[in-house]
């Protein structure tokens, strides 16, 4: 039985007040709060167990290395990868996607080759491909969403041509909450020899992910959205694709030998992890993943589905609120605008006075905002510790904002 009251006790920040009001944290899409077990692990590592990894034979170095490397297996199990050797650590999804852009796409693609994106991609899954467009003449093709925010997988498949080499697609929109059928897209893409990268930043925190079932070539996650530390993340890379990649960043750890005349690279995944890594951040991410898996990803998804359904009903009663993204099975992410002249930033400021934390702006999705014809939205994004009572407080705060702008 999922007991959200017990879960909330694990997060010390949820007991504080903001502007003399109980904190209602609905900005999980930007970054999630941290449970005490993660905070304790970070403190313990720095205060009792810290040393550099992979470089020493002394006790602390061996301990830090064991703790750090154990996370690779945790991520592999979290994503159901075939092997922990298919997991590359990094600072988050942005670095993970850039790794694929530089290490795989740059040497594999030529001028005129195509990359397919959806219009609702985060900038982290757009800008690296623009680099290739600017520098190598790669062509970016865009696929739109419909009026509900749904992305028809067939529309993506129909965009494939003999020039298409990669589909880079989100698993869940950080603005609309839309879930994308990445499995169907991947199956069709592979039948035509096209690789698939999935941005899992939003999806992996909200629902079970099975990369073997999806079949994708690359799947990126970020630790700070998974209730872990900022500066942590990982990317799944299918073993066959790793063989096609060249190193992106050079330095220590990613090499076996260095001489005046040449370099012998380390084996994957170490080949793609140069320099002293985010040791403590990665260990913290591993503890956060343990925490989520102990709760059960299916349990978390069911809880958030209940929150979504409750929020749909409550926000639906506010006829002066326009919710962007209305697919029935969406994640518990609600971007909205208010009728009249109220700007998203003004709405967010008023909500903050009531202790309600939401995001306001374009949410790093410029093409989507242009597609929707909006300068910005407010976004309430829910997590495993949010409650129906907090949604009620959000609605009360929105009613106040509406009165002020009426």
From TrEMBL:
Record carries keyword Transmembrane: no
Cofactor(s) needed by this chain: pyridoxal 5'-phosphate
EC number, as in UniProt: 2.8.1.7
Signal peptide span: none
GO terms, molecular function: cysteine desulfurase activity; pyridoxal phosphate binding
Gene3D superfamilies in UniProt: Aspartate Aminotransferase, domain 1, Type I PLP-dependent aspartate aminotransferase-like (Major domain)
Highest rank taxon of the organism: Bacteria
Any matching Pfam family: Aminotran_5
Keywords recorded for this protein, A-Z: Pyridoxal phosphate, Transferase
Catalytic activity: (sulfur carrier)-H + L-cysteine = (sulfur carrier)-SH + L-alanine
Every Aminotransferase class V domain range: 24-394
GO BP field: cysteine metabolic process
Similarity comment text for this entry: Belongs to the class-V pyridoxal-phosphate-dependent aminotransferase family. Csd subfamily.
Function: Catalyzes the removal of elemental sulfur atoms from cysteine to produce alanine. Seems to participate in the biosynthesis of the nitrogenase metalloclusters by providing the inorganic sulfur required for the Fe-S core formation. Catalyzes the removal of elemental sulfur and selenium atoms from L-cysteine, L-cystine, L-selenocysteine, and L-selenocystine to produce L-alanine.
Protein name: Cysteine desulfurase
Native species: Sulfitobacter geojensis
